[in-house]
Amino acid sequence: MRKTKVDKPNRVSYVYKQTINGTKEEIMPLYCPVKELDWCENWNPKAVFSNSGLVEKDCIFITSDGETDIVWIVTDYDIEKGHDIMMDSWEKAMNYYLETGKILTGLPNF
User: Fold this and answer.
1) Which candidate, 29, 56, 58, 32, places its Cα nearest to that of 45?
2) How many Cα neighbours within 13 Å face the side chain of 52?
3) Residue-level pLDDT at 38
4) What is the DSSP letter of 40?
5) How far is CA 40 from CA 43, 48, 81, in A?
6) What are phi and psi of 64, to 5 degrees?
7) pLDDT value at residue 109
8) For the range 92-97, what are the long-range contacts, defined as Cβ-Cβ under 8 Å and sequence gap of 24 or more?
9) Which residues lie closer than 8 Å to 48 by C-beta, 6 or more apart?
10) Which end of the chain is more exposed for a tag (fewer CB within 10 A), N or C?
């Protein structure tokens, strides 16, 4: 019997509390692999898999962190509930975008 080599995945989970100055209806659609191009200076997903073309449950997108590909899977998307996001830079970038309609530059890559 042949055996298949199975590698243990490198998984990371973050919890981070943010304060975004807007309503859930304004904020949630901006957490989208396509919409983030509007407010995130260095955002450049390599691929997006989505039935609607935007963020939705079961949406998958791939980003690169140097030589490592990062696969993002949206397991739940509920505008009514909202969700935690992991980085301070997102909070600053989104608040700036909601206030000015422009991308905040000079933040760390994410």
Assistant:
1) 32
2) 11
3) 93
4) B
5) 5, 16, 23
6) -120, 140
7) 56
8) 93/39, 93/40, 93/41, 94/20, 94/22, 94/27, 94/30, 94/39, 95/20, 95/21, 95/22, 96/39, 97/30, 97/38, 97/39
9) 33, 34, 59, 60, 61, 62
10) N
Under DSSP, is residue 90 helix (H, G, I), strand (E, B) or coil? helix
Please give the model's pTM, rounded to 2 decimal places. Answer: 0.59
Summarised one tens digit per residue, pLDDT across range 27-71 is 888 888 899 999 989 888 999 999 998 888 899 999 988 888 989
- Which are the contacts of 84, defined by CB distance < 8 A and separation ≥ 6? 15, 16, 17, 18
Tokens 């991308």 identify what position? 103
CA atoms within 13 A on the CB side of 63: 14
